[in-house]
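As a warm-up, study this chain.
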Amino acid sequence: MRINRFLAEQGIASRRGADEIVAAGRVTVNGAVAVPGTEVGAEDTVMLDGKILSHKVNYEYYLLNKPKGYICTVQDEKTDRPRKTVMELLPKGAGRVFPVGRLDYESEGLLLLTNDGDLAFRLTTPKSEVEKTYHVRIEGTITPAQLNHIRAGVEIEKGVVTKKCKAVVIETDKSYTKLRIVLTEGKNREIRRMFEAIGKNVTFLKRTKLGDLTLMWLDRGACRKLTPEEIYYLKNL
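Now compare it with the structure written out below.
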């Protein structure tokens, strides 16, 4: 397997993060500095920062109801004033896992953490088109034309247009509107940028579902292991 997949399966980082670690020259295979694309077999000795990594992997899968005020990384890169990370919410004894996708600092809701690099890749690659459901509150009202614009795809930066999505108003008032949004992609701060593009400010954002997986009975900030049935479901989405 490729070195980025091997590192992801070890729970070191996502495949993208693993590529960055390899590019930084921190990984060796049989004493030689690895490069992106290096192949690793069961007989190879892989070291990260001088420490040997085992080929044996025990996969772990967690479901977290992320609260606001946490970032979805293993550690904060802003070392001068480090922010809280979702890793602090894992139960004691949890293995080396990483977040699957991201929710921004001000957003909350359903987040998976695992060391299963293959599953993480399948759930986050744009080709998978796994549905993710969000509850959103914006300031003010939204017109039918604006709602249709959101559904059809919005240019969030020059040349970057979001995919078609499902968008339904579930509650409205003069001062706010609540909506349910279902996306099949996960661009950085996508929903916030979609509404910014039509002149609306998002005041609340929560991911409530991944496919049919929900946060049922899981309090804000709480975390639990996935059941075997849930793991099987995610692997077969």
